[in-house]
Amino acid sequence: MSSTFESSIKVIPYSQQKVYNNISDLNNLEKVKDRIPQDKVKNFIFDHDSVSISVSPVGDIKIHIIERDEPKCIKFETEKSPVPFFLWIQIVPESDDSCKIKLTLKAELNPFIKGMVSGPLKDGLEKVAEALAQVHYE
């Protein structure tokens, strides 16, 4: 059974193109490494197209970019995860120097698993959206 989770829409005070350029190259995660809670996330490794982390209590997760639709969307897919999922980040211009982002996660979850992971998935998605909204996209 397919389940979809969405973050709230976040306004970012940078142009759509600047935000896209930063998010579409995962090497830019270097800028936010220090904001990641060390007690929850371990083994944070990334390159241009993928990121892997070990999240307590979830386990190892590795995602990679499967599509870049410049400058409006970046799509990800899990390579390794307890729950396989797709994630996409939509970037919509609001003005010349601001844009809005929204994260959407889609996963195949049976009803039992869905009951257990819905809350943490929604919280995690919202935290990622908030972190992306606070980045300086210079």
What is the straight-line distance between the termini?
41 Å
Quick one: how many beta strands? 8
Count up the helices: 2
List the uncertain runs: none
Strand content: 35-45%
H-E order = EEHEEEEEEH
Fraction of helical residues: 10-25%
Assign the structural class, choosing from mainly alpha, mainly beta, alpha/beta, alpha+beta, or little secondary structure: alpha+beta
CA gyration radius, whole angstroms = 15 Å
Tell me the major beta sheet.
8 strands, antiparallel
What is the overall shape? globular
Mean pLDDT: 91
Defining traits:
eight-stranded antiparallel beta sheet, 8 strands, 138 residues, alpha+beta
How would you portray this structure in words?
The protein has 138 residues and is of the alpha+beta class. Helices cover 23% and strands 44% of the residues. The chain is built from 2 helices and 8 strands. Strands 1, 2, 3, 4, 5, 6, 7 and 8 form an 8-stranded antiparallel β-sheet that branches. A hairpin with a 2-residue loop joins strand 7 (85-95) and strand 8. The radius of gyration is 15 Å and the shape is globular. It starts with a strand and ends with a helix. 15% of the residues are buried. The mean pLDDT is 91.
